[in-house]
Amino acid sequence: MIQKTPNTSTESELLVISQAAKLITDASNPRPAIEGILRLLSELLGLNRGRVVLPSENSEHLSITYSYGLTEDERTKGNYVIGEGITGRVFKSAQIALIQDIDDEPIYLTRAVDRINLPEEAVAFLAVPIILDELPIGVLATHRLRNRNRPFQRDLTLLQIIATLIGQVLQVKSLIEERTANLLSENKLLRNQLESKAAKYGIIGESQALQQVVQQALQVSKTNATVLLLGESGTGKERFARLQHLASDRADGPFIGINCAAIPATLIESELFGHEKGAFTGATSMKKGKIEMANGGTLFLDEIGDLELDLQVKLLKVLETRSIQRVGSSKDFPIDVRILAATHQNLQEAVNEQRFRLDLFYRLNVFPIRLPPLRARHGDVPLLAQHFLIAANEEYGKQLNFSISALDLLENYSWPGNIRQLENLTKRAVLLSTKNTIDGGLIKKILQEEQGIVSPASDKRIKVDSYEHMNNLSSNNSTEMSALRPYSRIRKDEIGEIQDALRHNRGNKTRAAISLGLTPRQLRYRMQKLKISSNL
User: Fold this and answer.
1) What is the pLDDT of residues 196-213, one digit of tens each?
2) Whole-structure pTM over 0.85, yes or no?
3) CATH for the 7-175 domain, from 3.30.450.40, 3.10.290.10, 3.40.50.2000, 3.40.50.720
4) What is the pLDDT of residues 224-249, one digit of tens each?
5) Residue 201, Cβ neighbours under 10 Å: how many?
6) Span 199-372: which CATH code?
């Protein structure tokens, strides 16, 4: 029979609460504050082996993050899938759990602390959710002897109060980390804009893959050589064309761009070459074409692979004779135009299929530059996301930041739509966010809606469309690049696959990552978590 709790217990409870409040008020670092609170619970109230269990980086597992009275080995063993055991169920349901005797509870796992290391008498386990903004963010749990002179309900009520205080500590920690991450990201963006040769032309990033093509573009910008920009849709081909124009001696002249795929075949000849008055029905006056309008400057022909064969012949003549004939005229007009072209297609394949003229291909392919897909520009996604966020905040009158989890998801996503997709997603996130911070949950939701990705709770691998390979047009490793996996849970059965990839690639992590459909960062993270050595 449980006896009435003496006043000394009440005094101890009040002391725990007051000291806990002081610890969180003075806390600049959450660890000593939280572990100090757990020590008070143990020493003053006998609520022993206290632990705070929090979600891991991918939010699918829980692990002991703070504790008092547990060894390092016991803390390491305290990992749970959400919904697993008492701890996992408390987190998933956001409900309190009271196990009066752990030996009589079949779903109690005894995972962190072996039963042999606990008292022989009946041991109870108490667990309460840590709630923030009406959502569970962790679990506070302790052991205690069942036969104590204090009702379980008093301990549960106290633990709920303590869980609220710990939640505040974690929230402050999260806000500080997010603000720090955003300041670092903003500073990095500003530094890149100040120091990068390409930043003044609106090209943001510091990855080796980007810097390599920037150097190529600047190297050829002072010449009149025809440049062919290759790359997937959304990689910034027009931006690179503008870079070459602005960095050239033609910068004071016009920059005229035309998308060969966006204009109907019946109109594109007139758009390119212009027409004389009366050349066809509706031609009520003479009109200059894009090529003539670009005289003294640069003409950018985007999606050149979609140009009809008969127009390819006329474009070839322009490149060879540096003159044009307007539609309806037999007179040649000399022009001084530098031509830059771009395509996401494999032009060599188009030549083989007789969809593109070989002689025009050779004329255009004087200096090919392959733009890397965003997934190959390691470290550039946070810079670009921050740039687009600043622009979207200004456009929509908001002051939002990215959370750490949001930036991590963005950095690990494979971006089939490249930079264009990242910009659109950022704008959408700014419009949809109801908080001051764009969190990982919102980013994950948007990505799932855009790509039709299966739920993270499913065991099915996330499906992303494969990417078109563009081979044999440059010396880059594009033939090895395929669709990379989006962020997914780490599985122990990946160990053999990763080891085989490392062995096959002689320890080269970048090549191993590509062969596995991962970014190097994803591979390093998996190797760290699975304790895989590169010295195979």
Assistant:
1) 566 778 888 888 899 899
2) no
3) 3.30.450.40
4) 999 999 999 999 999 999 999 999 99
5) 20
6) 3.40.50.300
